[in-house]
């Protein structure tokens, strides 16, 4: 019988690296177990490593700020110190001033700041396009947004293989 060099219960899962907004947004369905629709997704990290992901219905996030605060507090207790917020909405209303659902992004930013966390970015994902609420540099964040890829990203492919 061959000798075992590793305990059977040791985790042999590869480390998957998220290398930017497209990888992160592509990872969200894997992190949640489904594709979010009309959702606020909060991603908690510490030292750049993903710790926990939470999702709220967008309608609940709009009407009940306390739900966002409770989710963030739970994420902080779980070890998150940095956060990324992503609003998924294919029914994003057009606005004359600013981006759709900017009020939610502002609320999340204020709650994270009040709790002592760091908001890395807040993103809007709508109709296959992502845009940052925080970045105003048109070289990396054009006002019209950036298309999400139709093909799986390297992260999505690696996550599928690892599953």
CATH class: Alpha Beta
Identify low-pLDDT runs.
1-9
Instruction: Count the domains.
Output: 1
Query: What is the mean predicted local confidence, pLDDT?
Result: 84
Task: Give a topology summary.
Blueprint: H1 21-32, E1 39-46, E2 49-57, H2 58-63, H3 65-77, E3 82-88, H4 102-115, E4 118-126, E5 129-132, E6 146-147, H5 154-162
Parallel strand pairs: 3-4
Antiparallel strand pairs: 1-2, 1-3, 4-5, 5-6
Helix pairs in contact: 1-5, 3-4
Summarize the structure.
The chain has 163 residues and is of the alpha+beta class.
Please explain how this structure is put together.
The structure is a single chain. By secondary structure, the chain is α+β, with helices and mostly antiparallel strands. The protein has a single domain, classed as 3-Layer(aba) Sandwich (Cytidine Deaminase, domain 2), CATH 3.40.140.10. The protein is built from five helices and six strands, in the order αββααβαβββα. The protein has a six-stranded mixed beta sheet with strand order 2-1-3-4-5-6, with helices on both faces. Strand 3, helix 4 and strand 4 form a beta-alpha-beta unit. Helix 1 packs parallel to helix 5 and helix 3 packs across helix 4. The longest helix is centred in the middle third of the chain and has 14 residues.
Characteristic key phrases:
alpha+beta; Cytidine Deaminase, domain 2; six-stranded mixed beta sheet
